[in-house]
Amino acid sequence: MRLDIISIFPEYFAPLDVSLIGKARERGTLDVRVHQLRDWAHDVHKTVDDTPYGGGPGMVMKPEVWGEAIDTVVGDGSPRMIVPTPSGRPFTQELAQELADEPWLLFACGRYEGIDSRVMDEYATRLRVDEVSIGDYVLAGGEVAVLVMVEAIGRLLPGVLGNAQSAVDDSFAPGSMQNLVEGPVYTKPPVWRGHEVPPVLLSGHHGNVARWRRDQAIRRTVRNRPELARELDPGTLDKHDRKLLDELAFRVGQEDVAN
Questions:
Q1: Which one is catalytic: 4, 143, 170, 241?
Q2: What is the C-alpha separation between 201 and 223, in angstroms, rounded?
Q3: Which of 10, 86, 211, 220 is catalytic?
Q4: Domain ranges across the chain
Q5: Which of 97, 105, 174, 259 is most buried, with most CB under 10 Å away?
Q6: Is 76 annotated as a binding residue?
Q7: 17 labeled part of a ligand binding site
Q8: Pairing relation of β-strands 31-36 and 2-7?
Q9: C-alpha distance across the termini of the chain, in Å
Q10: From the CB of residue 85, how many other CB atoms can be counted at a distance below 10 Å?
Q11: Ranges for the tRNA methyltransferase TRMD/TRM10-type domain (predicted)?
Q12: Are the C-beta atoms of residues 4 and 73 closer than 8 Å to each other?
């Protein structure tokens, strides 16, 4: 997969040289190319922003600079263009998987009050353009959001994870326990500072272990992400699931939330 990233802070992407993503780059699984947006600004100060039409605080990134940058990077190709912005569609595991199936992604990192909207309008006529949000909060720029997305996407590529099953079992992965979040995990030693590993995990009984993990996933989802738990399909819940939800005073599809 090829990833192009345009930013006024290319140094932000040094973390892409380490860990799983760094190894994927070394193997050639990921071809990451980071570009300095100011290379396409032609004034002495390498200006990439200006005051907003209509007034208001902050500055807006100039369309001319972005247009030259994108034209140069894209050439005659057709990557899928991703613009991180808090006003975009939510970035989810499902979208990460969808993007992992693309051969080429172009990330445009906005700053200040964002990129002139005509840039997205222009490139939407020839590329697939997605404005994407990683959460309901505002960052200083799109670089951190791109790091999040690249890691989420990159780890889904074949061969990036040592154990491919890890991605299948992720929280929010399609088909993974109906998108329940994952429950707690443990490793050796069996007792640490007086805290014991749940005995069921030491039992060797795969059926009981699976049941315990599902129960813990349900408990954690109800506690931390009740909006997800309300989306559980009642038709897929067994008697044990229903009993546990009753104990938690939680009703699927309703507004009840456990204490």
A1: 170
A2: 22
A3: 86
A4: 2-154, 171-247
A5: 105
A6: no
A7: no
A8: parallel
A9: 45
A10: 19
A11: 1-230
A12: yes
Active-site position among 111, 155, 214, 219: 155
Distances, alpha carbon 187 to alpha carbons 190, 199, 217, in Å: 7, 12, 18
Tokens coding 256:
């009840």
Rounded Cα distance, 181 and 109, in Å = 30
Main-chain dihedrals φ then ψ at residue 131, nearest 5 degrees: -90, 125
For residue range 47-92, what is the model confidence (pLDDT) as tens digits?
999 999 999 999 999 999 999 999 999 999 999 999 999 999 999 9
137 is in an annotated binding site: yes
Please say whether the structural domain 2-154 has been given the CATH code 3.90.1570.10: no
Q: Are 231 and 225 in contact (CB under 8 A)?
A: no
Task: Supply the pTM of this predicted model.
Answer: 0.86
Residue appearing with tokens 């997605």: 130
Active site residue 170: yes
What tens digit of pLDDT does each residue of 125-149 get?
A: 999 999 999 999 999 999 999 999 9
Q: How many CA atoms lie within 13 A of 224 on its CB side?
A: 12
Token pair recorded at residue 251: 């009703």
CATH architecture of 171-247: Orthogonal Bundle (1.10)
Same fold yes or no, 2-154 and 171-247:
no
Phi-psi region of 241 (alpha: psi -120 to 50; beta: other; left: phi over 0): alpha
The yes-or-no answer on residue 155 being catalytic is yes
CA distance 12 to 227: 34
Q: Hey, how many other C-beta atoms are within 10 angstroms of the C-beta on 193?
A: 4
Output the CA angle 66-41-45, nearest 5 degrees: 135
Assess whether 89 carries a catalytic annotation: no
134 is in an annotated binding site: yes
